[in-house]
Every structure is written in structure tokens, then in C-alpha cells.
Amino acid sequence: MSVRLLLATPAAVQVSVAAGGYDIGSGRTVPTVAAVLGLISVVVGGLALARSAGRTGVGNGRNGAIVALVLGLIGAVVGGLHMANSAGGLGTGNGLAGAIVALALGLIGMVIGGLALARSRRTA
After folding, report:
1. How far is CA 6 from CA 14, 15, 20, in A?
2. Is 58 within 8 Å of 122 (Cβ atoms)?
3. Tell me: the pLDDT tens digits for 5-52?
4. Which terminus of the chain is more exposed, N or C, with fewer CB under 10 A?
5. Cα R_g (the chain), whole angstroms
6. Are the C-beta atoms of residues 31 and 78 closer than 8 Å to each other?
7. pTM higher than the cut 0.90
8. Cα–Cα dist 81/107, whole Å
9. C-alpha distances in angstroms, 36 versus 28, 74, 99, 123?
């Protein structure tokens, strides 16, 4: 290795780090928010399912089931749309991985919310 190459390496690394950046842009923000909504729908749906089974004494879980269905639907639709419109593959910074997670969590939250809603109708 030449001395010139060794001296130039730190500057090249600094330029590539500054050009690549570690900021969260709109490409990652939208699927991250959708994934958080999907995660909230899974948690709320699980709590509603537990309430509809009669494990807790307060409420029948119907409102939580509806909230889980709506949040899961929003997360799945936003994740699916972002996944369809994402340019590039995984690791490009376009938020494709977050969109896949949002779609999966949204669908899981919708299924759990639907089960809780069906169970709350049956017990009411």
C-alpha cells in the first residue's frame, strides 16, 4: 500500500458516511409508523381477546377488538402500499423491510381483533 492511499482512506470513509447518512427519511418513517400501528393492534387485540374470554372482570373486549381491527387494517394497507411502491430491495433505505413488518403485524392484529370481536358477540 502506498502512503497516499493510507492518508486518503479516512477522508473517503468520512465522505461516504456523510453521503450515506444515518437520518431517518420519509422512506423509512412511513413504514415504521405503520409497523408501530400494527404492533399496537396486536397488543390491543390480545388484550381484547383476553377480556372477551372472561379473564378480567372489566368490559367484554368489544371496543378493543374494533380498535385492533381498524389499526391492523391501517397498518396492513399502508405497509402494502409502501411495499408496492418501494424502489429497490432490502437494505437500500427505502423502508421495504419496515413495510413487510407492517403488513405482517397488521394482518396478525386484524386476525386477533376479529377473533376477539367474534368471541365478544358470542358471549354477549
Report:
1. 14, 15, 22
2. no
3. 445 555 444 444 445 555 555 677 888 889 999 999 999 988 888 876
4. N
5. 22
6. yes
7. no
8. 14
9. 12, 11, 11, 30
Which amino acid type is present at position 81? L
| DSSP helix/strand/coil, 42 | helix
C-alpha torsion sign, points 17, 23, 27, 33: positive
CA 40 to chain centre: 9
Nearest-5° angle of CA 56, CA 61, CA 67?
Answer: 140
C-alpha distance across the termini of the chain, in Å: 78
For the chain, how long is the longest CA-to-CA vector?
80
Cα–Cα distance for residue pair 29/22, rounded to 1 Å:
13
pLDDT digits (tens, 9 = 90+) for 89-104: 777 777 888 889 999 9
Copy the grid coordinates of residue 23. Answer: 437520518
